[in-house]
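Students often ask why inverse folding is considered easier than folding. One informal answer: many sequences map to the same fold, so there is more than one right answer. In these notes we will look at a single instance of the problem. The structure comes first.
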């Protein structure tokens, strides 16, 4: 007999035809029995094929039902992750942003801060004006945006703060997250002092004329011959050195209490309240900057300052320091390695697409820096015309740093005593005080107040400018304090001490601790303590932490796994550009920054003032406090891991599964299901009706 494959339909037709023809054969019973015996094997084959086909059909239908059921469960589980995910330790619901725009605004507020107003223009000034913009924008693209994107992915996928996220990603380097929290907390202490000074200027801006206004030929102390004198002798009441604090400045003390209280009020109710606050605090500074720029455009000489800002000195591009400054500004401004990006993104919904937020925040931050440069340099051009000097001389005219000799008659000065009791032994309008204008906060608190005094309606612009600085400081302070708060709440301590589960209590503890550490900065030696803390908690510490962070995430955790995390959240893998930056460009740039920072390291100083040995030791203790957690974390992980030393090392670089990993795996059940439909169709074709006819 010839052998061929029959379909299910052919088999049914054969059976029906056989039944119809059964009575018309004209054969005897014996002949029919013989014929039935001959056809029996074929009939059994037909029935078997029909049974197989029926089973395959039921399997296919069951697989489809199972797949639909799995996707239904996946949808519910995804909703569960987004809305009701529980914390690992304290079991309380994880907060999420009420609206997507709140995350974007808070990130912009955290990134756009006082550094955009003074540090960026100052670095432009030092680096040849517009020449600085070229390395700055290049570093933004190949280093800033990729690493910012990386930290957003870490926070959104792990849904934890910096310390706990790193303990999951790479247990060997879990200390990186703790070091980041320590650094961020120390910076919040010094950052709050900038808000104190801005608030001091804001209060005194309601005077007409402004207190720091001086006549061109005046040299009397009562007129405070320059903005530089006012900042150092009225605001700071600066003593000769850090070893001579000379008591507390009680007006600054009161402002310190007020600023920390303001931070507490805005944070203790959680991100739902903070998300509403930033609608105003983030947008308001842009209106002030725009108003200042419009006003400056009508001032004589404004274009000369803008031209110095945008026209590059191409020779400066050969200076490695310019490129390192550009990369450092990107890190400082975007908050990379501070932990702020990770903690803010941990409040995102799991399926949020973070790339759009990353691009908006990154470009908004850089655009604000450049916009601020136009505001600052247009004012400098106007001031240069008034003084008959070149623009490049304005911010360095106080380079003759004659040390002032202060002879107070009381332990501390009040506002009413400053004028009568402060004696300055120095001559010339711009002698005295050491920091040099344009360095650090000097550009904001020394140079720009002088520019404002030359404007029409000077008190109005002064109030607006320093009000803007307060809001810029608040936005950044929210993020830095939140890092420390969530470190406590996400830790084991919250499970052991129920009080630490209440955010209001934890925020109060963090703010009170920051207040205590800020007390030395409201003494008459406060500027020296400020410089000491700021230098040792950011210069070397930041690059050191960034190096280990990039090493742990990009090389040990791995770009493939990081890309898979993005795919799980958004359904798409990150672009090739980001993967190349994570693999090679960003780690190499961070390594170069670390080497250059160590080779070109300069001890802390404030102008020409040299810190005593005990202060230098104190500064290095601050640095050690920030970075000691990295080696301690390595030692602890290797000591507590099981197995041989080699096995411990291998285990220590294996990432931990997030708490919601079981749910995550079910969200993509379609990929994990066997291709049942194809198997069923294959069974229908190959095992259908193969009979010998």
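Output (designed amino acids):
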């Amino acid at each position: 007999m010839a052998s061929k494959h029959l379909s299910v339909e052919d088999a049914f037709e054969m059976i029906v035809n056989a039944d119809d023809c059964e009575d018309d054969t004209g054969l005897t019973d014996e002949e029919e029995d013989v014929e039935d015996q001959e056809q029996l094997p074929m009939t059994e084959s037909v029935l078997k094929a029909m049974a197989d086909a029926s089973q395959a059909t039921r399997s296919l239908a069951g697989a489809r039902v199972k797949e639909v059921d799995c996707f239904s469960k996946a949808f519910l589980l995804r909703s569960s992750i987004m809305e009701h995910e529980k914390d690992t330790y304290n079991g309380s619901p994880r907060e999420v942003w009420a609206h997507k725009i709140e995350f974007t605004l808070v990130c912009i507020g955290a990134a756009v801060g006082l550094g955009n107003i003074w540090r960026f223009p100052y670095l432009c000034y030092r680096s040849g004006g517009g020449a600085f913009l070229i390395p700055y924008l290049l570093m933004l693209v190949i280093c800033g945006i990729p690493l910012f994107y990386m930290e957003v992915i870490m926070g959104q996928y792990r849904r934890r703060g910096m310390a706990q996220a790193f303990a999951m990603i790479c247990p060997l380097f879990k200390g990186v997250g703790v070091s980041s929290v320590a650094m961020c907390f120390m910076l919040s202490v010094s950052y709050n002092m900038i808000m104190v000074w801005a608030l001091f200027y804001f209060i005194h801006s309601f005077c007409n004329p402004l207190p720091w206004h001086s006549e061109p030929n005046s040299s009397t102390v009562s007129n405070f011959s320059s903005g530089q004198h006012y900042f150092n002798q009225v605001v700071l009441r600066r003593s000769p050195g850090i070893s001579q604090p000379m008591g507390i400045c009680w007006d600054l003390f009161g402002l310190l209490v007020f600023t920390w209280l303001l931070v507490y009020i805005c944070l203790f109710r959680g991100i739902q309240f903070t998300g509403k606050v930033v609608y105003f605090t983030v947008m308001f500074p842009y209106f002030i900057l725009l108003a200042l720029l419009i006003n400056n455009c009508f001032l004589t000489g404004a274009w000369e300052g803008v031209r110095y800002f945008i026209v590059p000195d191409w020779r400066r591009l050969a200076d490695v320091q310019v490129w390192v400054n550009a990369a450092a500004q990107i890190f400082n401004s975007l908050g990379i390695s501070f932990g702020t990006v990770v903690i803010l993104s941990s409040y995102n919904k799991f399926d949020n697409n973070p790339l759009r937020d990353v691009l908006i925040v990154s470009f908004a931050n850089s655009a604000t820096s450049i916009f601020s440069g136009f505001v600052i340099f247009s004012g400098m051009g106007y001031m240069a015309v008034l003084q008959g000097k070149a623009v490049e001389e304005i911010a360095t005219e106080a380079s003759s740093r004659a040390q002032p000799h202060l002879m107070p008659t009381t332990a501390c000065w009040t506002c009413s005593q400053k004028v009568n009791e402060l004696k300055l032994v120095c001559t010339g309008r711009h002698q005295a005080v050491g920091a040099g204008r344009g360095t650090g906060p000097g550009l904001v608190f020394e140079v720009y107040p002088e520019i404002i005094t030359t404007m029409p309606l000077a008190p109005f612009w002064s109030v607006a400018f320093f009000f803007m600085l307060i809001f810029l400081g608040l936005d950044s302070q929210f993020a830095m304090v939140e890092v420390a708060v969530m470190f406590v709440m996400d830790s084991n301590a919250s499970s052991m001490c129920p009080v630490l589960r209440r955010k209001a209590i934890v925020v109060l503890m963090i703010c009170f601790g920051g207040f205590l550490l800020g007390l030395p900065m409201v003494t008459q030696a406060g500027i020296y303590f400020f410089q000491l803390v700021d230098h040792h908690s950011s210069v070397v510490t930041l690059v050191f932490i960034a190096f280990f962070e990039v090493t742990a995430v990009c090389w040990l955790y791995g770009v493939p796994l990081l890309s898979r995390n993005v795919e799980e959240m958004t359904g798409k893998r990150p672009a090739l550009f980001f993967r190349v930056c994570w693999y090679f460009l960003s780690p190499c740039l961070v390594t170069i920054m670390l080497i250059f920072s160590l080779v070109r390291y300069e001890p802390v100083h404030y102008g020409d003032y040299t810190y005593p040995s005990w202060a230098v030791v104190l500064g290095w203790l601050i640095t050690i406090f920030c970075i000691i957690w990295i080696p301690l974390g390595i030692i602890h992980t290797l000591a507590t891991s099981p197995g041989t030393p080699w096995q411990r090392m291998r285990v220590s670089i294996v990432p931990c599964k997030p708490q919601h990993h079981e749910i995550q795996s079910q969200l993509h059940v379609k990929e994990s299901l066997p291709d049942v439909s194809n198997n069923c169709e294959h069974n229908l074709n190959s095992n259908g009706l193969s009979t010998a006819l």
